[in-house]
Amino acid sequence: MNFLPDSVTIIILAAGKGTRMKSDIAKVLHTIAGRPMILCVVETAAKVAKTNIIVVVGHQAEEVKKTVLKEADIKFALQLEQKGTGHAVICAMPLLSASCNDVVILNGDVPLIRPSTIQSLVECHINQDNDVTVLAAATDNPYGYGRIVLNNAGEVEKIVEETDATESEKKINIINSGIYCVKKIYLSTALSQIKTKNAQKEIYLTDIIGIARRNRKKAGLLIGLDQTEILGVNTVYDLQRIESLVNINNNMA
Predict the structure, then answer these.
(1) Could you tell me which CATH number the domain at 8-246 has?
(2) 217 near 7, Cβ under 8 Å?
(3) Percent composition of the chain: helix, strand, coil (DSSP 3-state, to 5)
(4) SS3 181
(5) Angstrom distances, CA of residue 115 to CA of 3, 41, 106, 154, 241
(6) CA contacts within 13 A on the Cβ side of 234
(7) pTM assigned to the model
(8) What is the pLDDT of residue 252?
(9) pLDDT tens figures, 172-229
(10) Cβ atoms within 10 A of the Cβ of 51, count?
(11) Cβ count within 10 A of residue 201
(12) Which residues contact 96 (CB under 8 A, 6 or more apart)?
């Protein structure tokens, strides 16, 4: 496994409370096979980015930091108010080094993402000279995921969240993983242009795609081969499902 260039930094979003987990424990501290899920993501990131990693913390921030620091020496950004994924990235931007050219954005509650997939995403992004590249998956059951809307040329037009999607958009089976690679200079510009005109009144990171199209920036797409890699944890059922997959993989190893 080769490391990413030093000009690439990974931001991991891990500030959410996870209210649907119905637990007093921060969502990313829930365990999978006895291991806090945030460590699964941090370990994967470290395999390709060494210490060029920033974890955005918020709910139970000190506990999350304490857990991560037991295994990794990385930076932390604090998101005091939960204003959405775009706001979480805004909180991390001041920690990016001057030498950083591209940013990979991962989620602390998507624990099965593989190092090789992150590498493929960055390679696609750099080789195609995209301003932003989104990791996607094709699925027969897109419910609950943001839909990736393509234009007639097959280019990424925008990403629409489930709660904001029209009936025709809900039928789209190409879903957003919530994982991106973005040029730092474009990311900074796009974040400043995001509005909160959505059902949740939040700053959606997904809006950087639509902003790219409106500003004639290049928005690329990489469709992953394994949909299970982008499974996220929002409920106890999700946690149990992912743990079952991990146990199956461990037994096959």
Answers:
(1) 3.90.550.10
(2) no
(3) 40, 25, 40
(4) strand
(5) 10, 10, 11, 27, 21
(6) 5
(7) 0.93
(8) 57
(9) 999 999 999 999 999 999 999 999 887 788 998 989 999 999 999 999 999 987 888 9
(10) 11
(11) 9
(12) 9, 54, 103, 184
The pair of three-digit structure tokens given for residue 148, joined into one six-digit string:
């990736």
Task: Give catalytic residue positions.
Answer: 20
Place of tokens 């928005």: 219
Tell me the domain boundaries of the chain. 8-246
Token match 């993402």: residue? 113
- Where residue 3 falls (left for φ over 0; alpha for ψ -120 to 50; beta otherwise) is beta
How many other C-beta atoms can be found within 10 angstroms of the C-beta atom of residue 251? 7
For residue 127, give both structure tokens.
């080789």
Is 11:54 a contact under the CB 8 Å cutoff?
A: yes
132-138/53-57 β-pairing? unpaired
The amino acid present at 64, given as its one-letter code, is V
205 close to 186: Cβ distance less than 8 angstroms: no
